[in-house]
Amino acid sequence: MLVSLSGMNPRTLHRCAELAEELDRRSVPLSMLCTPSTGVTSWLKQRVDRGDDLLLHGYDHTVPPTHRAVNLGRKAEFAALPAHEARLRLIAATAQLDHAGLRTRGFAPPRWLASRGTLDALRERGFRFCADVTSIRDLETGEVRRARVHGFGSQKQRTETLRCFALVLTAARVARRGGLLRLGVDASDLLRPSRRQAFLDAVDVALETGASGATYSLTAVPARLG
């Protein structure tokens, strides 16, 4: 079971810390998806020191992902980038992470969507794996491990109860079959009690069904990561 958290910032930090503590009690490590401007560097370092994982989650989600005349609408930052534009963003992002004292060889694109050009740029920049919405890709060997990430997405509030219930059922089903379970939550979801509880319930039901916690780095390329 892989549990990931995105959207960490000073406003949501208290909820993120609470989730991390709940996972500690369950002996489940957390994979943190961060951008260079996260604003909670000290907390990230503390969590990494405790055994949690760190993945780059883009550069700047607020800036339109292209300077071309073509309007890509509200697509995720790395969803449609050619290799040269993805490369520039990766260079800038890793430089800022290095300056903050954070390092990672893993990448999880915003909304879990990465273009072919992004994958090429990741390989060129020395990243070892990319976790997208349906798989975890070893960028050195080309091996692809299929497993869809499950979370709340952009579901509207009127489907809140159904979505929470579905997440728990899905976690139980995947764990019972012995598959790789990927659970992802955004920090904004943790501000909503029903989603926070449903996410923890999904973790609990997976553990009760026999799943065990792991990190993306060790799951993606266990033979080469210490």
Topology order in helix (H) and strand (E) letters = EHEHEHEHEEEEHEHH
Instruction: Give the strand content.
Output: 5-15%
Please identify the structural class as seen in this structure.
alpha/beta
Distance between the termini: 19 Å
Uncertain segments are 64-73
Biggest β-sheet strands, sense, barrel: 5 strands, parallel
Provide the gyration radius in Å: 17 Å
Principal-axis shape: globular
Features:
226 residues; alpha/beta; 4-stranded mixed sheet; 9 strands; 38% helix
Detailed description of the structure:
This protein is α/β, with parallel strands linked by helices and 226 residues long. The protein contains seven helices and nine strands, in the order E-H-E-H-E-H-E-H-E-E-E-E-H-E-H-H. A five-stranded parallel sheet has the order 3-2-1-9-8. Strands 4-5-6-7 form a four-stranded mixed sheet. Strand 5 (129-131) and strand 6 form a beta hairpin. Helix 3 crosses helix 4 (116-124) and helix 5 packs parallel to helix 6.
Topology of this structure?
Layout: E1 2-6, H1 13-25, E2 31-34, H2 41-49, E3 53-56, H3 83-99, E4 106-107, H4 116-124, E5 129-131, E6 135-138, E7 144-146, E8 149-150, H5 160-176, E9 182-186, H6 193-208, H7 216-220
Parallel strand pairs: 1-2, 1-9, 2-3, 4-5, 8-9
Antiparallel strand pairs: 5-6, 6-7
Précis, in short:
With 226 residues, the protein is of the alpha/beta class.
